[in-house]
């Protein structure tokens, strides 16, 4: 193993998709309210879809 190129670690990922008005934002808000304190989350938003 080359010390300059450490192995890539898998990152648990969830993708939330759906039609307009199905509750995606509500689901994300509820998930954030119950996020464990020991976890670090990032939320990416695509505003140029469609």
From TrEMBL:
InterPro entries assigned to the protein according to its UniProt record, in alphabetical order: CobW/HypB/UreG_nucleotide-bd, P-loop_NTPase
SUPFAM superfamilies linked: P-loop containing nucleoside triphosphate hydrolases (SSF52540)
Domain CobW/HypB/UreG nucleotide-binding: 12-46
Signal peptide: none
Designated name of the protein: CobW/HypB/UreG, nucleotide-binding domain
């Amino acid at each position: 193993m080359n010390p300059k190129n450490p192995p890539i670690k898998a990152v648990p990922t969830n993708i939330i998709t759906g039609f307009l008005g199905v509750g995606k934002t509500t689901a994300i808000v509820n998930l954030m309210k119950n996020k464990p304190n020991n976890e670090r989350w990032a939320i990416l938003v695509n505003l140029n879809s469609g």
